[in-house]
Amino acid sequence: MIWRRRCLVLVPVLSFLAAALIMSCGGGGSSTSNPQSNFLSIIGLNVCEGAPPTPTPKPSPGTTPTPTPTPICTPIAMSTTVGTTPPGNTVQFNAQGIFGFTINTKTPKYRDVSNHSSTLWNPIAPTGSFPGVISYQGNGLFVGVTTGCTYFTVSDAGFSQTVLVGVNTDPSTCPPLPAIPATRPAPSGP
Fold this sequence. Notes:
Elements: H1 2-24, E1 40-49, E2 79-82, E3 90-101, E4 109-112, E5 120-124, H2 130-133, E6 134-138, E7 141-144, E8 148-156, E9 159-167
Parallel strand pairs: 2-9
Antiparallel strand pairs: 1-3, 3-4, 3-7, 5-8, 6-7, 8-9
């Protein structure tokens, strides 16, 4: 008789514990999205004339600043003119990365990448290098040195834009950018 009384108490208690344990495991649902593919990644690059946007203010004691989203910059028309005498001898550019989720790119975010370690500001022929016509000062700032034309590319994460700068020269009179030859593998053996 005692055995029956114990079963009347133990069976419901053990059933309740088993059900609670099963429910706490989270079930066996599946998801079709890959968590790795939902990371924010760069999906484009804008090069704009002007200084990079100022970052969100740093918090001061007792306050929390409201983060401000970086507004989209207006990409330049890929050419600009600068002089060789101050104050008209400088031109500022900023590189803006367009970031989005690989699954949903409908609401991109914009971030300044002008001085980021992965952003490259590279000269291209016909002038060969910055020092002959313009001098690169860092963070997208260029200073006109001598009269002429120069092209440079701004690249980050596989995205790039080419910009033409005419120093005391109308960019429309500058020579066209030469075609960059494709590299081919060396021929193999005899």
